Amino acid sequence: xxxxxxxxxxxxxxxxRAWIHEHLDPAAARKVREGLRLTRDDIQGWAKTLGKxxxxxxxxxxxxxxxxxxxxxxHLFAEELAKAxxxxxxxxxxxMVAPVIQAFGTxxxxxxxxxxxxxxxxWWSQGYSEPGSGSDLASVKTRAERQGDFYIVNGQKTWTTLxxxxxxxxxxxxxxxxxxxxxGISFLxxxxxxxxxxxxxxxxxxxxxxxxxxxxxxxxVPADQLIGEENKGWTYAKxxxxxxxxxxxDVNRAKRELERLKRVARAEGVWEDPRFxxxxxxxxxxxxxxEMLVLRVLxxxxxxxxxxxxxxxxxxxxxxxxQCYTELLMLAGGPYSLPLVYxxxxxxxxxxxxxxxxxxxxxxxxxxxxxxxxxxxxSNEVQRNIVAQTVLx
Length: 393
Prior knowledge:
There is one protein chain. By secondary structure, the chain is an alpha+beta fold. The chain has helices at residues 7-23, 26-34, 40-53, 71-84, 92-104, 107-119, 233-249, 251-267, 274-302, 311-333, 363-369, 380-392; strands spanning 124-127, 143-147, 150-157, 168-174, 185-191, 197-202, 211-222, 226-227.
């Protein structure tokens, strides 16, 4: 495995860095670096900017309108975005559902849905989890009954991330109760403006409404919005989940937040505590190890091998690292980290303390929010079982 970047790859990195520096809104970048609240306009505005350049669909092959980058180029692009403090690309459209549409959709579906995803104009949501069906997705109960040229959908999805902004939603729905649970699931695209769709925000520990419940009450969905074959949705879901779990690792954000942690520790005087610095060192070792694992995946892709069987490992370690750095950041901030205060997420407000480093107020909220990472995308306990079966044998 060669971990060195070629001169051509380094030149590509410089090109990407220069373009981001020219086009990224400094106000949005400051919000990202200080953990402040991003609005829909912040997130989608940046997505549309990338879309105009043709880079929102950075992972797509040229035949579907993407840049056709290599695995290494995609990694360098994501790394430069994180370093610059760019708002994260919401993955549900360009990273998750798009590869499914490309692999299993009809030409008509590809022509209909892919352009809006690539441009950033259409915001997609994910309809997988349900009450009682989280890590055990095979037990989904949301029902889609075929009636002529339509499906009638009834049921509920939950923990729908940023679903309050969604235009369209890709869903796992039950179309049959015959055989094993996995064999009766289909993959359906639903317009969230359809009559009978209700979105209800859920307030989390950090005071934010990042996730939602979505209810379907006799929602009429055209049958041509079924991806692939009926009752074969489990196959398509597994294809998508491999991309989701690789994305969850988010090693580039971890590298950025590690440097932030060092800055905060120095500013708040805890850097001189050898025990605290030991914890930072242990975190840094884990981040480097995660990056090596990501580069191993890239090396496998470069040589034509399928690296997705270790996506669970990336998810496990990446999510644990996210929890670790948010906890250490909060501990470094001490009393200046303000829990459950809505105003703490607004720019410039640091609470009623006589000091404190700028950007400390949201640290407790970030800590609370990251408790979810070892659960969503398939809980880490379940992922360890999968890794044991598929990787270790």
